[in-house]
């Protein structure tokens, strides 16, 4: 079945770094765009970043631009989120999610149609 | 960035009630508007895309409508499993944004 499994979360000090992974299975990973979305404790959902099917297009929320980097390895069916210069406000559950399209920077139909179970990142001294 | 505003932020309703959640965009997003449902401790699931198209497997009691800046998610005859938080999200801009959520609680 179609599945996304995140890993790599943990506790990190402010200013530290962490790399999240999202392992995909059950679908042709290399043909779809992928997203990261986060949810701070008790708060709503916040979109973080998107990457196109081939990695040629990447976009970031203003809150993480310049600190986070989204990437993918299609040979390993894995999505990544490198998080640097972490702040307390980055504390959240991080979800990876599949786009139903290859993704391009144009208006797109479809939403995010498959989600992982999430991995928790805590930034604290 | 396009701001998405949902109302109400929470509501109480009974099983069998009909409810409507509103989502307003700060600029037109045409029909590039999606709705998600999230239950406590779980990942969100896609309910509606393209403002009005139900995702495969979503019951017909969920109905999305609207275009431009104003959108609605209606649930006719609330079921126990529908008590959850609902989010709208625009996919018109490359910088995706979501509404703050509407929590639907049991009265």
Task: Please provide a written account of the structure.
The complex is a heterodimer of chains A (125) and B (107). By secondary structure, chain A is mostly beta strands. Chain A contains no helices and eleven strands. Chain A is globular, with a radius of gyration of 14 Å. The model of chain A has no long low-confidence stretch (mean pLDDT 97). Chain B has 107 residues and is mainly beta. Chain B is 0% helix and 50% strand. Chain B contains no helices and eleven strands. The N and C termini of chain B lie far apart (36 Å). Chains A and B meet through β5 of A and β4, β5, β9 and β10 of B.
List the helices and strands and how they pair.
The complex is a heterodimer of chains A (about 120) and B (about 110).
Chain A (H helix, E strand, L loop, with lengths): L2 E5 L2 E3 L5 E8 L8 E6 L5 E7 L6 E3 L7 E6 L4 E6 L8 E7 L15 E2 L3 E5 L2
Parallel strand pairs in A: 2-11
Antiparallel strand pairs in A: 1-3, 3-8, 4-5, 4-9, 5-6, 7-8, 9-10, 9-11
Chain B lengths: L3 E4 L2 E4 L5 E7 L7 E6 L6 E5 L3 E2 L7 E6 L2 E6 L9 E6 L6 E2 L3 E5 L1
Parallel strand pairs in B: 2-11
Antiparallel strand pairs in B: 1-3, 3-8, 4-5, 4-9, 5-6, 7-8, 9-10, 9-11
| Helix percentage of chain A | under 10%
How many beta-strand elements of chain A?
A: 11
Low-confidence stretches of chain B: none
Assign the structural class of chain A, choosing from mainly alpha, mainly beta, alpha/beta, alpha+beta, or little secondary structure.
mainly beta
Helix segment tally of chain A: 0
| Fraction of residues in β-strands of chain B | over 45%
Order of SSEs of chain B, N→C? EEEEEEEEEEE
Major sheet attributes of chain A: 7 strands, mixed
List the secondary-structure elements of chain A in sequence, H or E: EEEEEEEEEEE
How many strand segments of chain B? Answer: 11
| Helix proportion of chain B | under 10%
Q: What Rg of chain B, in angstroms, do the CA atoms define?
A: 13 Å
Supply the helix-strand structural class of chain B.
Answer: mainly beta
Average pLDDT of chain B, to the nearest integer? 97
Mean pLDDT of chain A: 97
Strand content of chain A: over 45%
Enumerate the spans of chain A where pLDDT stays under 50 for 5 or more consecutive residues: none
| C-alpha end-to-end distance of chain B | 36 Å
Helical stretch count of chain B? 0
> Globular, elongated, flat, extended or rod-shaped: what is the shape of chain A?
globular
